[in-house]
Amino acid sequence: MRDSNHRRVANVGAIQGETSVANSLIEARRELSLANRIVANEGVIDAFGHVSMRHPDNPRRYLLSRSRAPELVAPEDFIEYGLDSQPVREPSVTQYSERVIHGEIYKARPEVMSVCHHHCAAFMPLLATGTDYVPVFHLGAIGGIKPPFWDQHDEFGDTNMLVCKLEEGASLARALGPHWMVLMKRHGVTVACTSVRDCVFRSVYSARNAEYQVQALAIGGAIASLSPGETQLASQIVATTTGLTRSWEYWSMRVAKAGGAAAKPANKPAKPVRATSKPTSKPKRAPKARRR
Amino acid sequence: MRDSNHRRVANVGAIQGETSVANSLIEARRELSLANRIVANEGVIDAFGHVSMRHPDNPRRYLLSRSRAPELVAPEDFIEYGLDSQPVREPSVTQYSERVIHGEIYKARPEVMSVCHHHCAAFMPLLATGTDYVPVFHLGAIGGIKPPFWDQHDEFGDTNMLVCKLEEGASLARALGPHWMVLMKRHGVTVACTSVRDCVFRSVYSARNAEYQVQALAIGGAIASLSPGETQLASQIVATTTGLTRSWEYWSMRVAKAGGAAAKPANKPAKPVRATSKPTSKPKRAPKARRR
Amino acid sequence: MRDSNHRRVANVGAIQGETSVANSLIEARRELSLANRIVANEGVIDAFGHVSMRHPDNPRRYLLSRSRAPELVAPEDFIEYGLDSQPVREPSVTQYSERVIHGEIYKARPEVMSVCHHHCAAFMPLLATGTDYVPVFHLGAIGGIKPPFWDQHDEFGDTNMLVCKLEEGASLARALGPHWMVLMKRHGVTVACTSVRDCVFRSVYSARNAEYQVQALAIGGAIASLSPGETQLASQIVATTTGLTRSWEYWSMRVAKAGGAAAKPANKPAKPVRATSKPTSKPKRAPKARRR
Amino acid sequence: MRDSNHRRVANVGAIQGETSVANSLIEARRELSLANRIVANEGVIDAFGHVSMRHPDNPRRYLLSRSRAPELVAPEDFIEYGLDSQPVREPSVTQYSERVIHGEIYKARPEVMSVCHHHCAAFMPLLATGTDYVPVFHLGAIGGIKPPFWDQHDEFGDTNMLVCKLEEGASLARALGPHWMVLMKRHGVTVACTSVRDCVFRSVYSARNAEYQVQALAIGGAIASLSPGETQLASQIVATTTGLTRSWEYWSMRVAKAGGAAAKPANKPAKPVRATSKPTSKPKRAPKARRR
Questions:
Q1: Measured between CB atoms, does A1 come within 8 Å of chain B?
Q2: Residue A242: how many CB atoms within 10 A of its CB?
Q3: 3-class state of residue B66 by DSSP
Q4: Touching B: which chains, 3+ CB pairs < 8 A?
Q5: Which residues, 6 or more positions from D251, have their beta carbon under 8 angstroms from its beta carbon?
Q6: CA distance C95 to B10
Q7: Burial of D168 (0-12, 13-18, 19+ CB in 10 A)
Q8: Is the separation of the CB atoms in C175 and C182 below 8 Å?
């Protein structure tokens, strides 16, 4: 306060910058919390499974809830992890054991901004029989044609099936390769995306497609999949139409109706997050609001 | 006010006429909004799909919601379109991309007053395998015996599967032909009807029938369809019994219970709409309430 | 009032008798209303289908709601019918078209006190394929082993499939014969019972059994039905255990939770109704409360 | 009060001990009530089926609700039974008829602290066809590989299928043997566990696994079960991760949302119960709160 006018202006700017970063993080946490609640409310996840996001201001970190059923996850439940899936600060709460799924994918794929791991019922018949996923309608194109399978037993033998070790996560990330969905045989599914909302969209509509495909298989007819060209074009629907905005509003309202959302749904997506986003001006002394 | 008695009476008449037209439109919008919410609440539609109606006062126009999940559609969300599927006034809100489905059917079929396009889960196994729909109980007769299939790929090759171009909509309308339901392979279903309530009834009960048929196929027995004569007679149930009134009251109350209806359900259908309805007395200067 | 003491006492007695009859009827209407709401809430019935009861004071009459979805039926919605399925008084409201199903069964089977007609989804795969119902668990025994099938087409050729004519109802009642459930091919199910609560129990648990049987058929294994001896013994569970009381409390609370019950569930069944119950003392001038 | 200081201290100690025992029992009843509501709310149990626990202070006794649908069971509904399945005090309320299922398992297996008997829909296709249960994902490991089948008919011929006699319960307990789940052909399932929360977890996730397995069988592919090693390791997840705490919080909140929980969910499990827990200091004159 006793400083020169110049310094004071600079200070105000710094504070505003920090505030803006903090606000963006608050918004990101709110959106990620809602994302968790949506996938739960839409039946993709029950007590197990989780949606994470890359940290909006630091691509070497990601946010994942403390050990809690996604339907209950609140904005303040997120823990900040390094890409080694170790918490930046040792939390006083319990953690998910399968967080390496997230960390290893963020490490291997810089363009991935959000990851969802789940055991959705719709997929289980495919995962139990090793049946390939194919898109049977346009919205299912988001899962790709025959996305890769991964079986933990192949590389690690008998385990408790949880993906807890760094090498297990790394193996899964290798299986994912350049794809956006990997099927974990006799376990579940992991979906990677370029934003939190895309991640929810891909998780929900690949699950719907799996449900329809399983029922189609049950009636025994030959399944007419989308062609590679159709799959490629239809997988862009989320980016080229108003469908994602429409879905997000719909899902948010359904969460609210189900009594699960304290906060009203955000009108627009949280600040776009890029792996190449420039570092904040004060990386060493991050504003308080960024941690808890 | 300073005019002759005669003129004032005439004026009052004109105002009353306009008011009555406006009221009928308000009622129509309310009914169409409820129709959208019902098909959503009954599981026929999720975030994608829509119910439209031909404009009650102008058969060359139709009403379709702005881009919004049907469960959330309110009476003020409808945009007025010409049969070329262009908005009469450029709206400030986003629009559905597949509106040509509606426009081209209204263009081709003057007796069609309402159209529903959806991707109901119950139909997807049939659409994924190209299995014909057959009525397996009386209420399913409303879908006809083996209604036509349409596959966008046949005429247009690889697309993103959305029916967005006029020629795509026209192709679909040709496939529909004189029928009331057309199955869109690897995509969804489009239903045409002579009123909004009929459209909801046909959409819901054809979906129920599809669900039962798929389960019957899954147990492998030979399906005993209704005969052509039975199908013809049973498809009239909606017109000849109290079933439609009963269903509408039931579905409206379910929407209300689910917390989705702001307005209380109308006691009677909105003013019957005919393609041949005489034009309003003042087509050039439509009352304000008709647009927004 | 000016009469002798003796006469006044007699009068009071007459009034009390009438009141008691009226109370029993009020209770019966309340129970029948709840029965309709329960079968709807348990997914046995949607907008179509109905539960009736024989009139508690007159075995030549029965009570059936006006044309209304069962989930909405209130105690005052019941119309009194003769066994010819004609209303005792011409009602000012619309009526169900399939009431002869009820009337003809009450005519043919004096011990039947309640009838439910429905198109429950669980049964449709059996009805669409003509697959026999068999009990696959103890509570399914209530439907019997391979209850009779009836197909309206056999006797009446092409119809709209609704059972509206007396001869159609009589044909169905003949198919039912001494059984308690008849499967109406490509249409639905009719269940007969000795009380309203039994009727709900039989409707719900035969539907659960059908659901399980259909899923068992879908996985292709040989179905191990209950033996005839087990079926006979297990079908008595409802009469010999506390299961019916427990179910009724459970279903009533579920209706209440779903926001569907204005009245609190009755603690005990309505006055037992027997076809042989002695006529009321004043059959000619039934108390007002009995009609509406 | 007029006694020596020493005696008074001793008295206070005794009172505190009693209170603590009583509190532990109150907590146990609350947890067992919630357990019943959870399995109901998660669709494992409807009006029939029950969850019991061994008495926290007396391994020769167990607690089981009076005859009531589990979704409605309150802490004060539990009756205290001896291992002969006779009530310690004759209750004024009706009792479940199948309580010997619980008593005979507690008698045969001292380490079993909680038992759940149910007829969950997910299992019925397996039970109707005698198809072996296999774990198709890690959480299904809790049911074991091919747990034993029991058919009441084998030993007892035609019955009403209810397990009501001591010898029927003992036969079932023998079939269970050292396993944690026994499949009752053409009837239901019984699950044994080392705590109430484990029992809920095992009941819910074995049911989910059965659902997935049945759907996998319906699409006809060869099922890839967990290996014996994986099954062994994955069945420990509940004991070695935060999954049980997470699930319990999730299920409790779902019960609360469904309007079924008067009490707020306990933050921690009720006092661990061991068959070897030392008897209370005053077995002869149990504190009032322990009985009702």
A1: no
A2: 15
A3: strand
A4: A, C
A5: A47, D38, D41, D42, D200, D204
A6: 45
A7: buried
A8: yes
Closest-CA distance, C275 to chain B, in angstroms, reads 32
> What distance in Å separates the CA atoms of residue B151 and residue B175, rounded to the nearest whole number?
9
What is the maximum alpha-carbon separation in chain D? Answer: 81
Q: How many Cβ pairs within 8 Å bridge chains B and C?
A: 120
What are the sequence ranges of the domains in chain B? Answer: 2-257
User: Kind and range of the H or E element at C19?
Assistant: helix C5-41
Query: Are B24 and B58 spatial neighbours (Cβ–Cβ below 8 Å)?
Result: no
Using the Cβ of B162 and the Cβ atoms of chain A, whether some distance falls under 8 Å is answered with: yes
**Cβ separation C138–D187 shorter than 8 A:** yes
Q: Which residues of C touch D98 (CB under 8 A)?
A: none
Spell out a b/e string for C127-138, using b for 16 or more CB atoms within 10 Å of the CB, else e: bbbebebbbbbb
Fold of A2-257: L-fuculose-1-phosphate Aldolase (3.40.225)
How would you list the strands of the sheet with A61-65, edge to edge? A78-82, A61-65, A50-54, A114-118, A188-193, A181-184, A149-150
Q: What is the pLDDT of residue A241?
A: 84
Q: Assess contact for D17 and D23: CB atoms under 8 A.
A: no
User: Which residues numbered 185-214 in B keep a CB inside 8 Å of some CB on A?
Assistant: 185-188, 214
Query: Cα separation of B128 and B187, whole Å?
Result: 8
Q: B83 to each of B60, B107, B255, D279, how far by Cα in Å?
A: 6, 6, 31, 84
SS3 state of residue D60: strand
Q: Which residues pair with B61 in a beta bridge?
A: B82
Q: How far apart are CA D217 and CA D83, in angstroms?
A: 40
Binned at pLDDT 50, 70 and 90, residue C18 comes out as low
Three-class secondary structure of residue D23 per DSSP: helix
Helix, strand, or coil (residue B183):
strand
pLDDT score, position A221: 76
CB proximity list for D153: less than 8 A, separation 6 or greater: C227, C230, D159
Burial of D27 (0-12, 13-18, 19+ CB in 10 A): middle
Sequence-separated (6 or more) residues with CB below 8 Å from residue A134? A145, A146, A213, A223, A225, A226
Tokens 């052909």 correspond to: D185
**Chain C, window 58-117: residues with a beta carbon less than 8 angstroms from a chain B beta carbon:** 67-69, 71-72, 94-97
**Tens digit of pLDDT for each residue in A194-251?**
999 999 999 999 999 999 999 999 998 799 999 999 999 999 988 888 899 999 999 9
The owner of tokens 């903090």 is A22
Higher pLDDT, B248 or A4: B248
d(CA B244, CA B201): 7
Query: pLDDT band at residue C212, thresholds of 50, 70 and 90?
Result: very high
Of A266-275, D1-10, D39-48, highest mean pLDDT: D39-48
Which of the following is catalytic: D18, D31, D42, D98?
A: D98
Q: What is the pTM of this model?
A: 0.86
**CB contact at 8 A, A201 and A244:** yes
* Neighbouring residues of A286: CB distance < 8 A, sequence distance ≥ 6: A280
Number of residues that make up chain B: 292
Residues forming beta bridges with residue D117, ordered by sequence position: D50, D190
As a whole number of angstroms, the distance between CA D232 and CA D226 comes to 9
Residue in D115, D121, D122, D123 with CA at minimum distance from that of residue D149? D123
Interface touch A131/D221, C-beta < 8 Å: yes
Burial annotation B212-234 (CB, 10 A radius, 16+ → b, else e): bbbbbbbbeeebbbbbeebbebb
> At C192, is the secondary structure helix, strand, or coil?
strand
Residues in chain A within 8 Å Cβ distance of D240: 160
